[in-house]
Structures are given as structure tokens and as C-alpha cells.
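Hi Q.,

Before the meeting this afternoon, I wanted you to have the PXL prediction in hand. No need to reply - just skim if you have a minute. The sequence and ligand are here:
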Amino acid sequence: MNVLTIAGSDPSGGAGIQGDLKTFASFGVYGLTAITALTSQSSSKFVRTDAVAAGMIRSQIRAVISDFKIEAIKIGMLYARGAIKTVHRELKGSKIPIVLDPVFRSSTGGILLRDDAFELFTKLIVPIAFVITPNIPEAERISKVRIRSIGDAKKAALKIQSMGARNVVIKGGHMDGPTVTDLLLEGGQFSAFSQKRLERESHGGGCLFSAALCAGLAKGTSLVEAARLAQRASAGSIRRAGKFGRGFAIAVQGNPDPVEKSLLSAIRRFCAIEGVYKHIPEVQTNFVYSRPFPSKPSDVLGLEGRIVRAGTSVQPVGEVKYGGSRHVANAVLAVAKRFPSIRSAINIRFDEETISRAAAKKFRISTYERRMEPRASAGTEGRTVTWGVGTAVSKMKNPPDVIYHRGAQGKEPMILLFGRNPSDVISKLVRIT
Ligand code: PXL
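Predicted structure with the ligand bound:
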């Protein structure tokens, strides 16, 4: 999967071309570049900018576009009128989605777009954007709408859309309050994503947002999902930001967590299984995956909410988090203690037929009775699962596929399905449902 960034060079490594390449790598997409300007800057000071000649920018774009199949393009620092005209000419007819990060000034005060190029930028570049990702000061400058509230942000987004950008994300980091709300205008529809404000500044977080969005779109993710992913990725990078130099902390791209990657993809697959709503229990479903050799709930990734049923549709609610699940996480911990190859599980609605099918497929099945639980742990939620599943596996010579119980007073019966990883769990599920 190839993506192209058209941007300036940042020798301090956090933003621009250098930051984008790291972000692309962290999402597993292959990064191509066309450099529009060279900056010299440190983590505390912006020193100088040299524009790259328009002909050279054109030559870089043509070299990569004529060779690589490119799934998405990010445009960052353009700096001068020549770059704007060239980029417009080279990309105006293109079908490749363009993520436009309208950067005007660096956090250290450097000029990323010359004042004499601003008008041309709004006239030629804003209209070729599939999505534009200004922060609040940038959105204010483009739209000329003062933004003090979400209502103002909506007005600004509509204005920017009327200037030709297909879709708009306004990043809410510059608005006050305990949460940060990013606003997406997709076609005619607004959505907002909020998360806790992180009380720290870092260099490169904005570049990372648009590069992550670009990587998401390249992979075929919907714009809403890619925007969510970008918000999460940039928050993560700010949390991990490091003081590599003497000045500003610099955003750090995450190594994509393979545990998270496979769990998220399996949750999506689970929700898309035809008729799967029939297997969601009253208490709803959780799906978990642990790090290797887990010993505590915080080693186990699960949904903070649940996978819930509404009518015949099934959807995940909340984010995945280490320590996000209690019950299903405790079940995996109890099994992994004896059989460390088992790291993933899901709970589904109890049904005699499901158990029969599992037996017919020669699944390894064990069971426990909640009423046999010793007084000491009885009634303590979470501990019951540890005791029950622990008891059920203690008799087994090989890792279980299924552990179930038939419920108790006021307790819903339940089936737990286990596997080496989420994909293994899904393939077992498909065989017995
Ligand atoms: O973060 C905006 C940005 C983009 N591109 C380059 C930069 C910066 C910020 O410093 O230096 C080259």
C-alpha cells in the first residue's frame, strides 16, 4: 500500500516529511515523498527556509506517480506560490484522495506558508482536498469565522466546504475545556469525537493526525473511522512524546500494537457475521486478546464497553483497552495459566444447540457449575469466573475450545469460546453457529 506526502523537510524529525514517513511506517503503509521546501530548525528554534524549485517539485511528483500505485496523498507545507501552482497542476484531475493539512506556522514561529501565497492556496489547493484538517487558528484564517464554540466550528467547517474541500475535520485542541473535540463534516453530516485533554504540548502532533488519516484512507477505512483512528494516534503520540532535544517534546509515532490490531480486526469481522445477533447474550459480549503470558487483567485487551445488539445489528461500544474487560479477561487469565497458548476469548449466548454442534465438531469442551463455588469466592464478581474456568480447565489435558456454565439464580448461562488469537476464535465461532 503506497502513500505520498508532499511536504517540507523538518531536520528535527518530528514533523513534515520526516514525521510523515514515521507515521506511515507505523501504520504499515509504504511512504513516498515530494519535498517542497527545506527548513532548518531545532526542537526550540526555527532558523531558515529554502523553497525547492517548482520544476523540481513537479519532477518528484511525476517520478513517483508514474511508477507507484498510490492510494492516498497528504499535502503539508507548500510555502510558496510556485509549489502551489505546481501541486495544483499535477493533482487537479487525480482520483487519488488528498488529505490536506493546511499548515501556516510552526510551533516555534517558522513560516510554513508565505503570506503572499495564502490567497492562491485557498483558491487552488483547498478545492482539490478530499479532506482538509485545520486546527482552530487555521480554520479561522481560512474561513474568516471566529471559533469559540462547537457551533462556530460547524459554521467554519461549512464555510471551508463551500470553498471547495469535499470534507472537513477541525481539530479542537485549541479550544478550552477538559476534553478535546474534533469535528468532522462529511458531505452534509457532522460528527464529533471527543477525548480527554492531554496537558502537554508536542511538536509534530498535527502532522501525525493528517498522516494517520491518510494511511487510514489508503487502507480503505471510511472517513469517519479514519478520523477516529487519527485522533487516537495523535493522542497516543502526544502521550509518548519525548524530549529528544533541549526544546519542545516531539511526538512519537506508536509501534502499532499487534494485539490491538488483530483484536480490532476480529471485532469488525465478528459484527459482520450474518445473524450473529442471535448469539449475543443479555449481558452482551466482550472479546479479548492478551499479551503473551498474561498474569493480570491489565495484560488483557478488551472492550471497555461491549459488543451490543440492537435489533438485528451488532456493534462495538467503547474503545479497546488493556484492563477493559473483567469477566472474559479473567477467563483467559485462568486458561492461560494452564495453557499459555490460549490468549483470546469471547462470550456468547448459551444455547444447547451450540454446545451440540461444538461436540459434533470434536471441540474440547469443559463446564462448571456456579452453585458448586466455595463460599469464599462466591458472589464476588470476577472471582467466580476465575474459580469456575480454573476448575473447568484443571481437568483438561489439552487447551479448551469451549467452557460453559448453565447459570444460577439470577445468573445467565454462558458459553466462552477460546483460541490462540482472535482470528482463531472467530473461525471456531463460525463452525459452531
Ligand atoms: O507541524 C507543521 C509542520 C509541517 N511541516 C514542516 C514543519 C512543521 C512544523 O514545524 O516544520 C516542515
